[in-house]
């Protein structure tokens, strides 16, 4: 856990997310890259250096936002990108190697009934970088109980679990597994990855129409302070991950949600 990306906009009340990221990064001695994306079309007339001016202005505003918080010794760097958000994230990941994205569920521009807004939803849907979704106003505290929910225990690559392993070991958290048998499950789905089993303190197997409903059923009894799910074609929130916005009526979490991405499965 070396490089953490925090995509924020200068007009968002994103200080809380950045403060959370600082505390999280401090625990891992990680660096933070605060990123803003802007879009200056090549068709824009007038000044030839308009892109440079916009980038400079964005950096200055981000620096002002950073200067307002206590960095607690964490190195915070600024990154700007001219273009689409996902392209910018992929670009900085290719250059630096991003281990984790920390983002709030939604931006101010999305109505209150939304859990994932357009920006946060796009990050979760269209990138393969592990993402920690932190509810606004959440103060960082070491995790004590992690609930990891899935409908298939098969993982093709152990490294998918790296962020979860790092978090569990750092905070010596109790990790509970929730295997949700949904209609059409196979015997292979019931074979849980050995690395995942090695991390766990407890395994619960339940039958529900969806993984999400399995989580709803067991969330209160488990009382986790971190929910971990997998983003894959047959995984948690399949229908939710297919769209950029997610209403709170379909899903709402009062604790941080760690989304581990699986490219192929």
Task: Provide structural commentary.
The chain starts with a strand and ends with a strand. It has eight helices and twelve strands. The chain has helices spanning 15-28, 50-67, 85-96, 118-126, 162-171, 194-199, 211-222, 238-241, and strands at residues 3-7, 31-38, 76-82, 100-103, 114-116, 131-133, 145-150, 174-181, 202-207, 226-231, 246-247, 257-261. The chain has a ten-stranded mixed beta sheet with strand order 3-2-1-4-6-12-10-7-8-9, sandwiched between helices. The chain has 265 residues and is an alpha/beta fold. Helix 6 links the parallel strand 8 and strand 9 (202-207). The longest helix is centred in the N-terminal third of the chain and has 18 residues, at 50-67. The model has no long low-confidence stretch (mean pLDDT 82).
* Beta-strand share of residues: 15-25%
Poorly predicted residue ranges: none
Helix content percent band:
25-40%
Within the largest sheet, what's the order of strands?
3-2-1-4-6-12-10-7-8-9
**Overall pLDDT, averaged?**
82
Question: What structural class should be given to the helix and strand makeup?
Answer: alpha/beta
Give me the count of strands: 12
Rg over alpha carbons: 19 Å
**First-residue to last-residue Cα separation:** 25 Å
Largest sheet: 10 strands, mixed
Q: What gross morphology would you assign?
A: globular
Number of helices: 8
> Strand-and-helix sequence, N→C?
EHEHEHEEHEEHEHEHEHEE
């Amino acid at each position: 856990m070396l490089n953490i990306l925090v995509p924020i906009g200068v007009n968002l009340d994103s200080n809380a997310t950045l403060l959370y990221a600082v505390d999280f990064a401090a625990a891992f001695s990680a660096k933070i890259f605060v990123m803003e994306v802007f879009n200056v079309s090549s068709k824009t007339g007038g000044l030839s250096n308009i892109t440079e001016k916009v980038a400079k202005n964005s950096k200055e505003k981000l620096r002002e936002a950073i200067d307002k918080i206590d960095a607690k010794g964490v190195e915070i760097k600024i990154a700007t990108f001219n273009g689409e958000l996902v392209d910018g994230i992929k670009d900085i990941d290719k250059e630096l190697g991003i281990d984790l994205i920390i983002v709030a569920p939604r931006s101010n521009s999305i109505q209150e009934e939304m859990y994932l807004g357009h920006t946060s939803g796009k990050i979760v849907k269209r990138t393969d970088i592990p993402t920690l979704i932190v509810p606004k106003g959440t103060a960082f505290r070491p995790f004590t109980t992690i609930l990891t929910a899935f409908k298939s225990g098969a993982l093709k690559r152990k490294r998918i679990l790296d962020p979860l392993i790092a978090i569990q070991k750092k905070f010596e958290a109790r990790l509970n597994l929730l295997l949700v048998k949904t209609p059409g499950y196979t015997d292979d789905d019931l074979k849980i990855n050995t690395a995942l089993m090695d991390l766990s303190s407890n395994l619960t197997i339940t039958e529900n129409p969806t993984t999400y409903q399995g989580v709803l059923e067991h969330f209160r009894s488990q009382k986790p302070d971190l929910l971990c799910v997998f983003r894959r074609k047959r995984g948690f929130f399949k229908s939710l991950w297919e769209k950029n916005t997610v209403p709170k009526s379909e899903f709402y979490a009062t604790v941080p949600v760690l989304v581990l991405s699986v490219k192929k499965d």
